[in-house]
Amino acid sequence: MASGREKTMKSSSHIFAMIFLQIIIVILFSLFVRYDPKTAQRSEKSVENGDGQMKDTYPIFQDVHVMIFLGFGFLMTFLKKYGLSAVSLNLMCSALAIEVFTLVYGFFHLHCEDPKFSLGSSACPSSWPYIDVNVGTMISADFATAAVLISFGVVLGVTSPLQLIVMTVMETIIFVVNEVIGRDFIGAVDAGDTIFVHLFGAYFGLSVVRVLYNPEHAKSEKEGSSYSSDLFSMVGTIFLWMFWPSFNGGAAATGDAQQRAVINTYYSLCSCVMAAFAFSALVTPSKKFSMEHLQNATLAGGVSVGACADMMLTPGGSLAIGSLAGILSVCGFQYIQPCLLKKLKIHDSCGVNNLHGMPGLFGGLLSVLMAGIASPDSYDKFSHGMEDKSLTEIFPALAEGGTAAGQALSQLLAIIVTLAFAIVGGLVTGLLMHMVGKMERMEGEDFYNDDWNIDEIEAKDEVSEDLKVLMEDLKNLKFNGQAVTVSEKSALLA
Questions:
Q1: Residue 33: beta bridge partners?
Q2: 132-150 exposure pattern, b = at least 16 Cβ within 10 A, e = fewer
Q3: Residue 465 DSSP code
Q4: pLDDT digits (tens, 9 = 90+) for 105-129
Q5: What are phi and psi of 479, to 5 degrees?
Q6: Cys-Cys with 191: which of 51, 117, 252, 399 at CB 3.0–4.6 Å?
Q7: From CA 53, how far away is CA 40, in angstroms rounded?
Q8: How far is the CA of 151 from the CAs of 142, 144, 351, 447, in angstroms?
Q9: Residues 6 or more apart whose Cβ sits within 8 Å of residue 22
């Protein structure tokens, strides 16, 4: 049974884009990508290194993977008529981002055929470059995918599959360039990717949606939630909340630094929940909890603590950060988001600025502060006589003659450069998406509507014959002489 509006080949150009793009990716993978000889191919110490990576990194990768595909996917099901599209397009964008990241990041880190030598050296037996992949590559690809999904949340329900493909490819490329500059050249540290993922993804998406602005985005009757859509979205929130310590600790140095990252995130999230619940009831006119706040603001503590998750925040400091992040996020939903739409014509479908943007900027500035006050007394109080110092492990530049003030400046520069890449890159990508949007033009009835993407959606929404009969019977009932109003939901409960 065909449903709703039929698509033509012209309005289905995303089909050819996906086929063509996947052919290119397969060819590039075949030419350049190989198993890492140090961990995934039998070589000297490959068994030991591979086993260590599987034990240390793979469990955390699994947690992050759940966040990407279940957490983000279900979090975006809050729209009452767009749940199937949200989960499905989340899967599509994630898979594409992983493939593109592997190639782009790999081209910045090419290897010699013989892993004992560096590419370009006279000892390298071949000039052909290789991209080595291992479990570490997989978790890094998931981090990059998170940035894309954050931007996806901004444009949720108002973009076609072809536009999302363009955004995913462009954003992943720009993400890698920005991260390489921020980490390798500026020397910023960001264990939980507050700067390079959350801040970047949020303002990239906001820049994109500004270019794509359409007054009909905010006028659609389909832009809203229902009881069941809010419930599914809250399930996504719980998945993200549970596994966020792994996200922030995944890139931290193994040992005490990684344990600090997990502990700090754990307590920051708990504090954030309490603050979000309290301020949600405080700012809503009914003095009740808002599901929009609970689905999003309860996670802001994980965002804000990320950049300094492995630093010496202290447990009390983590609680304070989480509380402030929760308050900031709730106030963003209640007061900032309406202003962005009214004053700047920025329509933020998921409230990404409130969960990732402002808390990300707050967390980035916290990393500037924590880097500036870092000292051996706080990081190496119990490591006297040891060669491996915690301070220089967290801030490698200090081992090369750098200062705490210099590291703080690096953190600030990384924030500025990231915002520049996100905003400029988002505007350029938005222009490209606007152009390709003419090929798959969406009209008012198509926004926030599963029928634009999913086949036979009318059949899925259709009320069964048995339920129709039950509703008719109930409608004929009277209570105290008054007719009874019966909805589909009440009929189901009956």
A1: 131
A2: bbbbbbbbbbbbbbbbbbb
A3: H
A4: 999 999 999 888 888 888 888 889 9
A5: -125, 115
A6: 252
A7: 10
A8: 15, 11, 11, 17
A9: none
Cα 64 to Cα 246: distance, rounded to the nearest angstrom = 7
HSE-up (13 A, CA, CB side) for residue 195? 31
Query: How is residue 14 written in tokens?
Result: 């995303």
Can you tell me the distance from the alpha carbon of 273 to that of 236, in angstroms, rounded to the nearest whole number?
15
CB 390 within 8 A of CB 379: yes
Pairing of strands 131-133, 33-35: parallel
Do 206 and 154 touch, CB atoms closer than 8 A?
yes
Q: Phi and psi at residue 43, in whole multiples of 5°?
A: -155, -175
Contact 225, 80 (CB under 8 A): yes
DSSP string, 404-458: HHHHHHHHHHHHHHHHHHHHHHHHHHHHHHHHHHTTT---GGGTT-GGGTSTTHH
Asked whether 331 and 300 are in contact (CB, 8 A), the reply is: no
The backbone torsions φ and ψ at residue 33, rounded to the nearest 5 degrees and listed phi first, read -90, 135
Token pair 């900027």 is found at: 361
Residue given tokens 């998931």 in the structure block: 142
Q: Which of 267, 344, 359, 348 is nearest to 307 (CA)?
A: 359
Q: Three-class SS of residue 164?
A: helix
> b/e string for 242-269 if b means 16 or more Cβ within 10 A?
ebbbbbbbbbbbeeebbebbbbbbbbbb
- Which residue, chain included where needed, has tokens 């003659």? 401
pLDDT tens digits, 446-478: 899 998 888 878 777 665 566 566 666 766 665
Taking each helix axis as running N to C, give the angle between helix 161-180 and helix 83-108, from 0 to 180 degrees, rounded to the nearest 10. Answer: 40
Per-residue pLDDT of 414-423, as tens digits, reads 999 999 999 9
Q: What is the pTM of this model?
A: 0.91
Region 249-255 average pLDDT: 92
CB 399 within 8 A of CB 392: yes
Tally of CB atoms within 10 A around 99:
21
Burial (Cβ within 10 Å: 0-12, 13-18, ≥19) of residue 402:
middle
Closest among 192, 318, 311 to 251, alpha carbons compared: 192
Q: How far apart are CA 259 and CA 299, in angstroms?
A: 20
Structure tokens at 355: 């969960």
Q: Token pair of 28, please?
A: 């590039």
115/166 Cα distance (integer angstroms): 35
Angle formed at CA 135 by CA 130 and CA 136, multiple of 5 degrees: 80
SS3 77: helix
| Contact between residue 361 and residue 303 where contact means Cβ atoms under 8 Å apart | no
Report the distance separating Cα 92 and Cα 453, nearest Å: 12
